[in-house]
Amino acid sequence: TPVTPCAAFDTRTTENATGTFAGARTGNNVTTYQITGTIPTEQGGNGGNCGIPTNATAVLINLVAVNSIRAGNLQAYATGTTPTGGVVNFAPLVPAMNNANAVPIPINNPINNGQINIRTNAGPTGAGQPTTHIRGIILGYFTS
Fold this sequence. Notes:
Number of helices: 0
Number of strands: 11
Radius of gyration: 14 Å
Distance between the termini: 12 Å
Order of helices and strands: EEEEEEEEEEE
Shape: globular
Strand content: over 45%
Helix content: under 10%
Mean pLDDT: 87
Structural class: mainly beta
Oligomer: single chain
Largest sheet: 5 strands, antiparallel
């Protein structure tokens, strides 16, 4: 079911991310984001409610790596589960560009209270510590 695009999280302080949600993510960093119900404004983005019902089993999110420094990838997965593969590969580009991918992410509601994890992983050996801001824009949801 499509929804009006809704920024559920954004690590840039210019998007009002605060506390543990603020700042670029580095390698082996995992951040948990609320996707259903009231989305905390501290996550950055729109805050409020993105219209994902409590019976949703997955969400479609445009996951964006912003202002990347060194190569890496992002993994998105339901909180309480194990990540299986990268969903957004990123690298610094000239001219500067964002790397994005629209991905369905299981949310296993109500087991994990409508939360997802985003993990930042290092790129190729010797590439150095990856650093990137991340942004998640919800585009829709799935129900069983």
